[in-house]
């Protein structure tokens, strides 16, 4: 499971070390950890004419050519038609306020009608102001 891209649909086979990774950042992290033990293992994924991808839905391997890649036509798995070329969802920090379900307890919601109702309750039959002073 990739922690960099949340909606990852394919795995990438790194031609440098012949291992499967969810993204290039995962490859860099793992090779950095290994490089701390052995300095000869430092490497990046080299650019190639063909990339090997593994679909996470049907578990089949296929190849694409990045130079000739068209997002609309080639962005699908050739076996199961799973769309792997999608906009990446990356994790980001958010501040959320949680409350009880408003369908059960709506006390946290401000009802805009309450102000109008209060104005109507404050009116008296004997007031000489506003709508209450009119006869008929």
From TrEMBL:
Keywords attached to this entry: Metal-binding, Zinc, Zinc-finger
GO biological process, one term: protein import into mitochondrial intermembrane space
GO cellular component: mitochondrial intermembrane space
Keyword Zinc: yes
CHY-type domain residues: 1-82
GO molecular function annotations of the record: zinc ion binding
Superkingdom, taxonomy of origin: Eukaryota
One Pfam family in the UniProt entry: zf-CHY
Positions in coiled-coil regions: none
UniProt cross-references to InterPro entries, sorted A to Z: Mito_Tim_assembly_helper (IPR052604), Znf_CHY (IPR008913), Znf_CHY_sf (IPR037274)
PROSITE patterns: ZF_CHY
Protein name: CHY-type domain-containing protein
Natural source organism: Polychaeton citri CBS 116435
């Amino acid at each position: 499971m990739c922690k960099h891209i949340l909606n990852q649909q394919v795995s990438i086979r790194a031609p440098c070390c012949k291992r499967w990774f969810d993204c290039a950042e995962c490859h860099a992290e793992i090779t950095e950890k290994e490089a701390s033990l052995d300095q000869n293992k430092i490497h990046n994924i080299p650019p190639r004419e063909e990339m090997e991808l593994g679909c996470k839905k049907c578990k089949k391997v296929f190849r694409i050519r990045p130079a000739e890649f068209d997002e609309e036509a080639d962005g699908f798995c050739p076996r199961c038609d799973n769309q792997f070329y999608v906009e990446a969802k990356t994790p980001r920090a958010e501040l959320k306020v949680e409350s009880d379900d408003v369908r059960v307890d709506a006390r946290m919601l401000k009802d805009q009608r309450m102000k109008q109702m209060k104005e109507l309750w404050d009116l008296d039959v004997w007031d000489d102001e506003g709508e209450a002073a009119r006869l008929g």
